[in-house]
Design a protein that fits this description.
The structure is a homodimer.
Chain A: H1 4-14, H2 16-20, E1 24-29, E2 34-39, H3 53-74, E3 79-90, E4 98-104, H4 110-120, E5 122-133, E6 136-149
Chain lengths: 152, 152
Amino acid sequence: MKTAKELEQFILDNIPLSRAMSLQVSGFTLQPPSLTLTCPLTPNSNDKGTGFAGSIVSCATLAGWGLTSLLAAHNNIDATVVIASSNIDYLKPITDDFQVVATLAAEESVERFNQGLDSKGKSRLKVHINVMQGEILAASQFGLYAAREKRG
Amino acid sequence: MKTAKELEQFILDNIPLSRAMSLQVSGFTLQPPSLTLTCPLTPNSNDKGTGFAGSIVSCATLAGWGLTSLLAAHNNIDATVVIASSNIDYLKPITDDFQVVATLAAEESVERFNQGLDSKGKSRLKVHINVMQGEILAASQFGLYAAREKRG
């Protein structure tokens, strides 16, 4: 699983809620590391007709997981990735379809992440996730993800 | 909207993702303030067959919103409630249906929350949400919610 398309298929096949969210993996770059998911508003709306916080945080959580998984795969390591913790600030109500962009936290590097996987078979990655409606920053999340090499 | 049943109906009618999660409002007490939601595992599972972090955090986020909304309603104030921020620690994988229990954070009181609503028409509430699989604490979230009286 190394491309946006493969990741999208894996998510839709294995996480039922992602289908209910009509989630799409809309972009991935390895250099710099960045993963973008897209969600339509309608299935992710709340009682006020704006973006449901649960959908926003769920999509952000998945974006960080996806980025961590793709980075491990591009280091040629078949890893299990889980989230350890996260925090999110909701900044603006969302009134249309939204994008969720995961990048490395400022203090992180792919080299450090890969080094842990290569030497110990496990590593952690702090991911910064921005939830955008067009140019508007609607929410900002930091998530800590743990990757562990699968043992044959 | 003052009972668990009314809250459940409101959520299911107005938040499409809650239906995909098969979410139930399974308990509410005013004294001490506590709201319990229940989610089945199957629609909320991930690629590992355990609880999807996105479902867990989404359900926890909704539990705090529900508790804050019910407290405002029991203070006879028709309020709009939104989440401002939250942080969550994922402690154990979930392997079965789970309960999400929202209570006041240790430093909070209903009196303080009501006072803000009564005097300024707005108030904030910090909610502690435990995600339980039976007796096992699987995740722990703190959420900060803002309530504002609707203006006729």
